[in-house]
Every structure is written in C-alpha cells, then in structure tokens.
UniProtKB/TrEMBL annotation:
This is 4-hydroxy-tetrahydrodipicolinate synthase. It is an enzyme of class 4 (lyase). The keyword Lyase applies. Belongs to the DapA family. GO terms for molecular function: 4-hydroxy-tetrahydrodipicolinate synthase activity. Pyruvate binds at residues 45, 203.
Amino acid sequence: MFSGSMVALATPMYADGSLDWDSLHNLVEWHIEQGTRALVAVGTTGESATLDVGEHIEVIRRVVDQVAGRIPVIAGTGANSTSEAIELTEAAAKCGADACLLVTPYYNKPTQEGLFQHYKAIAKAVSIPQILYNVPGRTAVDLLPDTVRRLAPIANIVGVKEATGDLERARELLDTLPKEFAVYSGDDATAMELMLMGGHGNISVTANVAPAAVAQMCEAAMAGDADTARAIDQRIRILHEVLFLESNPIPVKWALREMGRIDGGIRLPLTSLSPEHHATVREALRSAGVL
C-alpha cells in the first residue's frame, strides 16, 4: 500500500527546455530527507504531455535508480491512446517503478465503457500495480464512481487518485470500494479532509515546495489527529491557492526557481508565471515558511 504524502514531482528544465538532471537528482534527495512517502515521476505536473517517449522513460529510470528502494516510485504512464499507455506502463515496469499512475484519456472523451475497457486493457497487459487518476478539469472526461467500482476487482488496479475536490464523491468511494482499494486525494485544498475521512494519502502539488509540512499533515490526518492536521494545513493553505493561479505546473516551477531548487525552464505551450503573480506567490512562500 502506498500512503501519505506522494509528491507529483515537477520535471526540472533549463531555460531552453532541455532536462536538468542535476536538479532532478537534488529534488529527489530533498524529498526523501523531508519525509515524502513516494515520488510520482512524470505525472501531469511533470509535464508528461510535452516530454517525448524517450525522455519520459529516462526520467522514470533515473528516479528509480537514484531512489534505490528507499521510498516507492510511482510512474505517470497515462495517455489518450491505450496502446501508448501500455507502452509507457511496460517501460516503467522494466525500469523498476513500484506502480503506475494513469490519467484518464484526455481530449477524445471516451464513454464510461471506453474508460473501463481502457484501464482493463492496460491492467491485463502489464502486471505492475496501477492507480487510476481522475482529473476532469484537465481532461474533459470524468471517471465516475460506478466505473471505479467496476475496475476495483481487477487485482493490479490498486487505487484511484480523485482530483475533483468533491468530498461527497470521496465519501462515496470510501464507503463503497473494498477496504484494500486506496482512495487518494489529488486536490491539495481538500486533501486533509479526505484523509480524515479515511483516505490513504495525497498525491500533491504543494509538496513540491513544502514537502515536510505536507508529509506531517498527511501523517496526522491519516492517524486521525484532526487538530494537528488542521493546524499544519492552515499554515500552508495559501500555497494550495496560489500554486493554481495559472495552469499547473506554471506556478510551482516558478516557486521552485524562487527557492533556488530548479532553473525554472518550462516547455511550450506553457510559459513562465505572469509577472503580475510574482509578488503574490513570493509572499505565499514566505507566509508558509518555505522561502
């Protein structure tokens, strides 16, 4: 079981868009030191949509090799083509990833039956543990609870990252799925409440810049210590807001550059954070105690 704070790791780049392996190495070590429980390599926060297949696999391989079993590595291998998702998932398994995170197919808007068949085909093709990922605000398709329940009996589909921020839906999933099937938050603003309800962790954007605080909040929430969890979450809540002032990962990459962690490059069609937001994000980092 994967649990606790799982960072949706940004992929460091230079100004020209080339990959910055030294900064990636340093981020991995920092997260392990700060108490992050798992690394999600090349998820959507990691700009999976603009990395080519070779780069995608190389990031996964380097992260797995560096981590060397100290914490789990979950590889983002979703795609809007089932065959491509299978190819990436097979590659991640060969690299030694502990699990894969598969975003719903974006743009082509499959039916619920299409989603079921898509995930069933990937699970059948590759035996690695797989986590479903529902983020309709980015993909224009919503993986409904009924479909998650249809997929849950498949042995190597082990959980779902629910990023709608809808706590009523989270409650339904927790109440109706098998106890061993993990429900993770993919929405930092509501993650604490989901874990207090019985959720298994948070696949987090905020953890990119405040890994220790998010890790501590997750541990408290999962232990049922609501007072401690709420106190920590209140201290970093401003980050949950400002890191989405523009499309993720635009603000978080700018924040990491401001913290001296990465060079700050980002690939088109995304561009760097608009100047009018710089002071707001900088002040939020100071308020949260991470700058």
